[in-house]
Amino acid sequence: MVSAKVKETLSKVLFTAAAIICIVAVVTIFVFIVAKSIPALSKIGVFDFIFGDVWRPDKEDVYDQAINGKYGILPMIVGSIFSTVGAIIVGGVLGFFTAVFLARFSSPKVKKIFGTVINLLAGIPSVVYGFFGMYVMIPLFSGISPTADGSGLLVTSLVLGIMILPTVVALSKTSLEAVPQSYYEGARALGARHEQAVFRTVVPAAKSGITASVILGVGRAIGETMAVIMIAGNSPEYPDGLFGSFRTLTANIVLEMGYAGEVQMGALLSTGVILLIFIAIINLLFGLVMSDRKQHGSGRRHLREIKYDFSKAGKVLSWVTAGIVAVVLVLIIGFVFIKGIPHITPQLLFSDYKYGGEPSIGPAIVATLMLIVISILIAVPLGIATAVYLNEYTRRGSRMVKIVRSAIDVLSGIPSIVYGLFGALTFVVWFGNTTSILAGGFTVSIMLLPVVVRSTEESLKSVPDSFREGSLALGAGKVRTIFKVVLPSALPGIFSAIILAVGRVVSETAPLIWTMGSVIQPMPTGFLGGGATLAVALYALSNEYRYMNEAYATACVLMIIVLALNTAAGIIAYRLQRKLQGEKNVKRKKRY
Amino acid sequence: MLKEKKDTDVGRKNGTETNVKKAPFGNSISVKRADLFYGDFHALKNISIEIPSNRITAFIGPSGCGKSTFLKCFNRMNDLVEGCRISGEFRIGDVDIYSDATDVNELRKNVGMVFQKPNPFPMSVYDNIAYGPRTFGVRKRSQLDEIVERSLTQAAMWDELKDRLNKSALGLSGGQQQRLCIARALAVQPQIILMDEPTSALDPISTGKIEDLCSQLKEQVTVVIVTHNMQQAVRISDKTAFFLLGDLVEYGDTEKMFTMPHDKRTEDYITGRFG
Description:
The structure holds 2 protein chains of 2 kinds.
Chain A: H1 2-44, H2 46-51, E1 55-56, E2 59-60, E3 66-67, E4 70-71, H3 74-105, H4 108-123, H5 126-142, H6 153-178, H7 181-189, H8 194-205, H9 207-223, H10 226-231, H11 249-256, H12 262-296, H13 311-340, H14 346-350, H15 362-393, H16 399-413, H17 416-425, H18 427-430, H19 437-461, H20 465-473, H21 478-489, H22 491-507, H23 510-513, H24 534-543, H25 548-581, H26 585-591
Antiparallel strand pairs in A: 1-4, 2-3
Helix pairs in contact in A: 1-12, 1-15, 1-16, 3-6, 3-9, 3-13, 4-6, 5-6, 5-24, 6-9, 7-8, 8-13, 9-12, 11-12, 13-25, 15-19, 15-22, 16-19, 17-19, 19-22, 20-21, 22-25, 24-25
Chain B: H1 2-8, H2 17-20, E1 29-38, E2 41-51, E3 56-60, H3 67-73, E4 84-92, E5 95-96, H4 104-110, E6 111-114, H5 125-135, H6 141-154, H7 158-161, H8 174-186, E7 192-196, H9 204-217, E8 222-226, H10 230-236, E9 239-244, E10 247-253, H11 254-259, H12 264-270
Helix pairs in contact in B: 5-6, 5-8, 6-8, 8-9
C-alpha cells in the first residue's frame, strides 16, 4: 500500500510541477525582456525612445568612425496603430456583416460550408497571406499607386483585415446565436420584418460579444509579423498616405534582430516591451468587455432604442459582404493552388539543396518534421499535465487555478515575434550559440502550451464526473482514475489538440527565423544544426523573385499540409468519439 | 476449486499485509452520533443506526432529507465534496472507517457503490468488469476471465452479454448499463453494496430485474439502497430507515414500519401526505 501512496504523491507533484513551469515560463519571458531592455532604455532615454521619430541604428562612417544611432520608435508605433485600425475597418466590417449573414440570413447548409471554410482561413500560415499580398495584391495596386509601388498601408490593412476575419466572424457569430430566440420572436410579434428584428433587436443584444471579437482581432493584427514585413515596405518612417512605406513594431524586431549591436538589441527588446504593453491593454479591454457581459448576461442589459432604421441597408450589406468574403476566400486559395500545383515537382519536393543550386524544399520538409518532433515532445506532455492539474487536482476557482490560467492566457496573447526574440537570446545561446532546430523547438513549444492546455482542459471537462465517481467507488486511487478512465475518455479532444499543435508548428515563421534559420539550407545535420521549415522557406523564396514558381509551389504545399491537418483533427476527434462511445451511443447521448 | 479462487482473488496480492491478514472489513454497519455539515448547512443530525449484515436496508424520505448523503458516508465518497465535514463514529464490522489508519481505496473495494445514473466507463463490457480487479493487481487473463464470468453470472446477465464482451459498454441499454455497473461492483467481491436510487432512471422492466437481483445478492452481501419509491422499499427491503430534513425519524423492520409506523411523520410520508 505504501507504493500506492508514493505513486499518488509523486503524480501530484509532477502535475503541479507542470503547472508551475507554465507560470515560470511567463514570468521568465517578461522579466527577461524587461530586464534586458533596461540598460538600452536608460542610455537612449525612455522619452526619446517612445517619442523620437528617427530610427537610425549605430553604424560606422566611411572613416570607420562610430556614429551613435538614434532610436525613436514613434513611427513604428504609429505604423502599428494605423495598420491595425485599417485592419479593423476592413476585417471588422466584413467580419461583422458576414457573422450576421451566417447567424441570421443564410440557409443551414450555406452556413455550415461557409463556416468551415472561414475556420480553415484561420489555419493558413501568415507567411502565405504575406505571399499572397506580395505576389498578387501589390502588383494589382501598383497600377494605381502614385509611386508605382503597391506596397504600404493599404495592402497591409487589407491583408491584415482578411487575416482577422476568422477571429471576428467566429466570436461574433457565437454571440449572435446566443441571443435568446424570444427577443427575435418578440420583435416579429410586434410586426417587425426579419431584418428589422435582426438589426434592431438581436444585434444590439449581442453587442458585447461583437465588441470582444473585434478586440481579439486587434490583438491578432498588432502582433502579426510575417505578413506585414512582406508587404509594408518596412522603411522606419511615418506612413505617408495609403501607399506610403512604413514599419510596424513587430517588423522592427524581426528585421534587425539578425545583425543588431548591443544598444540596438536593447532597443529591439524595448520594442518588444512596448508591444507587450499594447497586448496587455488589449487583454484588459477584452477582460472588461467579457466581465461586463457576464454581469449583464448576454442580452439582459437595457438596450437603447435605435433611432434610425438601417435594417434594410444592413440586410443588403450582409449579403454583399458575405459575397465579397466568399470571393476573397476562393481567390486566395484558388490563386495559390492554380499557380502552385503545376510546379510541385519531385525535384522540388525530394531532392537535397545545394547552396547556389536550384531551390528544393526537401530539406525544409525534413527540418519541419524534426521541429514538430521536438516541440510536440516538450509541449504535449507538459500541456496535458498542466491541464490535468487544473482540472483534477484543484478546487474550481482556487487561487492557483486563476494564476495558472492567466499565465496561459498571457502566453497565448504574446506576439510570436516576442517569443522569437526570447528564444534567440536564450535557447540559441544555450544550444551552442548558433541557430538550431533544438532552439527553434524550445521556442515554439512555449507557444504551443496554451493550445494544448486549453483544448485538453476542455476535453477533460467534458468527461462526466460519474466516470470519476465510478472509478473511485471501486477503490481505484486518483492516479489510476486519471490514467485509466479520465484521460482515455478525453482522448479524442487531446488528439485533435495535438494535431492543431502540429498545424501551428508548421505555420509559425516569425519565431523561427532567428532561432532556427532564415535561409534555405541543405539537409539538416541533426537537432543541433540549423534548418528552415517550409514556412520559413516560403518566406526566403518569396524574397527572391527569381524563383516565383517554386515559391507558389511551396505556398501550395504548405497550405495543403495545414488544411489536411485541420481537417484530420476534426475527423479523428469525431471517429474516436464514436468508437469510444459505442456505435449506437452517439445518438443516445443526445437524448439524455 | 472455488475456495482456491477465493484465496488468490482480488486485492489479496496487492501489498504485503493483505496477504497475511484477512480482509479487515466486516459486512455490518454501525453508526453512532453522526453529524454532517456542508459548509454551514447541517445536513445530517446526530444519527445512530445499526445495519445488519446480509439484509437489504432501504433509506427512504423526501428529496433533500440527507439519505443519499448518509449513504455516501459509508464509502467516504463525501470526501470528494468540498466543504463537507463529518463527525461521529462510523464502523464497518469492527473498523472505524474515518480513522487515519483506514485506507480509503481498500474501504471502497469492500463497500461497493451503484449510482443513480448508470455510469459505465467508455470501455468494453469486459474492461468495465475487470477495472476493479485490475486496480487491485489482478493481471492474469485467465483469472480475469473467471472474475468477469462470475460477476456477470451473479448479476444475471452472463447469457445476455457473453457474446458482447468486447463491445462498448455504452452501447447497452440503460437497464443493462445499470446491471453492468452492479456486476462491476461485484467483481471485487465487496461485502457491502450501496445503491443510490439505482432504478430511478430506468423503465419498469429493468427496475424489476434489478430488484430481483438485489434479493439474490443479499445471500452474499449487505445491501443498502436509497429509494424514492416506497413500493420498492416494501418489495425488497428487510429494514427501512425514514429520513426527514437530516433526522433519522424512524428505523425498523420494513413490514412493521409500513403497517404500524411509530411516528406521525413516518405515517404521513408513507401514506403520501407529503414528500
